[in-house]
Write a structure and sequence with these properties.
The protein has 180 residues and is α/β, with parallel strands linked by helices. It has 2 domains: 68 residues, Double Stranded RNA Binding Domain, CATH 3.30.160; 78 residues, Orthogonal Bundle (Arc Repressor Mutant, subunit A). The chain is 33% helix and 16% strand. A 4-stranded mixed β-sheet has the order 3-2-1-4. The chain has a two-stranded parallel sheet with strand order 5-6. The radius of gyration is 16 Å and the shape is globular.
């Protein structure tokens, strides 16, 4: 099932591109505020555009290909996949989430490269210690995976738990980061 996000894009232009990397074809989309959506393992550029229209609730005419806009970000991804980049530097547009989801996603950004944390830890870090299950749900709704490192969250017993892109990608990313 594809996620439908709460967006308020009205007539904004959404720039996008797709690029190949070790986990497959990845789509990047941004508004003038920043990166708004990443999709891993997309089937094709056309499929990514359709996903944007469906997920973001925008019109196809608002979606414009602009690979130049993402050039620096793609270079960062290439460095990340070589194990050279520890954190991304690119503006983010988090408005696809509820205030609670945005709080969780910002909490995810505090988890260091190569480190895993539990859902309970994340709930405590956002001053909502009894919300581990809700934190897990917000984690699964993260529209900016890898950059907002939801793959670094595991069950308190150390098991991987789920991952929207598939547990095999989560395992790959944690191995890449030599996570402990």
């Amino acid at each position: 099932m594809k996620k439908k996000y709460n967006s308020n894009l009205k007539s904004e232009t959404v720039s996008y591109t797709v690029f190949k990397n070790p986990i497959g074809l990845t789509g990047l989309a941004a508004t003038k505020k920043g990166l708004i959506r990443i999709a891993s393992k997309v089937a094709s550029e056309k499929a990514f555009v359709n996903l944007l229209v469906e997920n973001l609730g925008c019109q196809k005419s608002q979606v414009k290909k602009d690979p130049e806009y993402f050039k620096i970000l793609i270079e960062q991804f290439q460095s990340y996949f070589k194990g050279e980049l520890k954190s991304f530097k690119f503006p983010l547009d988090l408005r696809l989430g509820t205030p609670f989801q945005q709080e969780v996603w910002k909490g995810l950004l505090t988890i260091p490269y190569g480190v895993t944390r539990s859902y309970k830890w994340l709930a405590k870090s956002i001053n909502n210690p009894d919300s581990a299950r809700a934190v897990g749900n917000a984690n699964g709704q993260n529209p900016l995976s890898i950059i907002i490192p939801c793959h670094r969250v595991v069950r308190k017993n150390g098991e991987l738990g789920g991952y929207t892109g598939g547990v095999q990608i989560k395992r790959y990313l944690l191995e890449l980061e030599k996570a402990s």
